[in-house]
Amino acid sequence: MASILSVRGISKTYAGGHQALGTIDLDVAEGEIFALLGPNGAGKTTLISIICGIVNASSGTVTVDGEDIIKGYRHTRSTIGLVPQEISTDMFERVIDTVALSRGLFGKPRDDAHIEKVLRELSLWDKRFAKVQELSGGMKRRVMIAKALSHEPKLLFLDEPTAGVDVELRRDMWELVRRLRDGGATIILTTHYIEEAEDMADRVGVISGGKLILVEEKTALMKKLGRKSLHVTLSEPLGAIPAGLSSWSLTLADDGHMLDYQFDAHAEDTGVSALLSRLGELGIGYKDLNTEESSLEDIFVDLVHRPAREAAA
Amino acid sequence: MIMNIHAIKAIYKFELHRFGRTMLTSLFVPAITTSLYFIVFGSAIGSRMREVDGVPYGAFIVPGLIMLSMFTESISNASFGIYMPKFTGTIYELHSAPVSPLETVIAYVGAAATKSVIIGLMILATAYLFVWVPIAHPLAMLGFMVLIAVSFCLFGFILGIWAQSFEQLSVIPMLVVTPMTFLGGAFYSVHMLPEPWKTITLFNPVVYLISGFRWTFFGKGDVAMDVSLAFVAAMLVVCFGVIVWMFRTGYRLKK
Questions:
Q1: Domain A227-293, CATH among 3.90.1570, 3.30.70, 2.40.128, 1.10.357
Q2: Which of A105, A110, A132 to mutate to test the interface with B (most CBs of B within 10 A)?
Q3: What is the 3 state secondary structure string of A271-313?
């Protein structure tokens, strides 16, 4: 599929000398949901701000929907909708006025029906004549989203959309993201809630220290790095791993009470059944078994900390 | 999309709406202030003053009063218009919108200047409650009003971009513009001053603005009309140049 966003060699060094982004290359296909993961200060917001025109890049080019974001800013910016991380709205204005302003700013003629649709979708219609300052934090965030959707963007950026919002709003938000995707929009989101990226995204990019250290199909990523561990709680503690079990890579934990086995969950033969029958043959009794799948979170933590570990080693 | 007309319209409407919300203070305060000036200067002091340049004193101060309010209102409205989004953070939207610097200036300055002209006319109307003010060149008067409103709104817009605190926002109007207006012949003719003040006053650009505006009412000013127009034109050009530079470099706007 054609890429709606293509980032080439983008870097950013702020006036103070702080390098927020190394050199970033990234392509996002039309219609996909792309999750950008990374710890605080990794450069997620800087990257988004450059694409949206809020921050000038130090080098590199960005193409959105076939046009350069500087030469063709009229087109690229009207293609993009941005929901920033921080809630900043016109506190004294009415909800419907601030949303209508956004539509105009992005070059679209007045369309009351569309504004109504957006406000209804976000459960803001009843509050349309309320001043923004009278709304709760969650409602304000809905206003931010309504503003971003007011001009029917093809590419939507959600910067930490679920940080600090209640469960209901999070659920609504993800439902909305799915509906938008079904409507053909491309969505790029940053999040701390890895399970959400795992749930929603088609592809995942991990950014750390201003560098994009990995971009991968989410399923491929899970497959590639998705390891499972089997924890066997033993009836009697073992002092050492018996020689008869040397063909499995095992570790003893919990003072010999627990036998851990790491295996590839997607392999033809995981070795689990053979291990269990060997345990029986050797007369090693166990009280409990449980397996654990490494989540995207484990993968993420592993990736982000790996360079530091490698440097230390 | 050659010009983002929808954006200009949206910002203009939004800004006027903001003024509408503060209608009471923005329109009635100038009207009341003007009335106070008339009671103090027009009736109490004016009755003891002879005519100035053949114009009754009460009528003579009207152009200066209008200018005084329009200067401060233009600067404060235009500077607030652009400072508030910076302060609340909503400026992110303007930066991420397909809006050119020129469109931004047209919309914000246009809205602020509209309000200034309304206030100017409001003060003029209030003046008629107290004195009869002849207007020799009505069209020129309106044109001059618009030019002054636009110039000072441009100046206010620059101030709003430059300011990094509310204090900075109010320091220029309070410490520079108000004194210059008072000393710029708002309430007297420059010819009434003794030397060396008369010569020193001529270095105050506001003298030329008030004089020009007064000419449109009474057909004569302290200085020639073309000199006044040249000053207004110079102010327009300089302010616009500074704004172009600010947008080009992203001065205090973009990181």
A1: 3.30.70
A2: A105
A3: CHHHHHHHHHHCCCCEEEEEEEECCHHHHHHHHHHHHHHHHHC
* SS3 of residue A258 by DSSP: strand
* pLDDT tens digits for range A166-204: 788 888 888 888 899 998 999 999 876 677 777 788 998
Give the phi and the psi of residue A204 in degrees, each rounded to 5.
Answer: -130, 135
Contact of A247 with chain B, judged by CB distance below 8 Å, is answered with no
- Model confidence pLDDT, tens digit, residues A254-291: 888 888 888 877 677 788 888 888 888 888 888 888 88
Look at B90 and A89 and tell me if their CB atoms are within 8 Å: yes
**B98, A75: Cβ pair inside 8 Å?**
yes
Q: Where in chain A is the domain with CATH 3.40.50.300?
A: 3-222
Closest CA relative to residue A279, chosen from A228, A237, A234, A227:
A234
What are the tens digits of pLDDT across the range B160-197? 999 999 999 888 888 888 888 888 888 888 888 888 88
> What is d(CA B30, CA A236) in angstroms, rounded to the nearest whole number?
91
- What is the length of chain B? 255
Cα A119 to Cα A103: distance, rounded to the nearest angstrom: 13
Phi and psi dihedrals of A236, rounded to 5? -120, 135
Is residue A16 within 8 angstroms of chain B, CB to CB?
no
Question: What CATH number matches the domain at A3-222, 3.30.465.10, 3.20.20.140, 3.40.50.300, 3.40.50.150?
Answer: 3.40.50.300
For the record, the structure tokens of A313 come out as 């080693």
Q: What tokens does A53 get?
A: 């025109």
- Name the helix (H) or strand (E) containing A29: strand A19-29
Phi first, then psi: give them for residue B50, nearest 5 degrees: -80, 180
- Do residues B183 and B47 touch, judged by C-beta distance below 8 A? no
Nearest CA in chain B to A92: B18
- Is residue A93 less than 8 Å (CB to CB) from chain B? yes
Residues 6 or more apart whose Cβ sits within 8 Å of residue A278: A244, A245
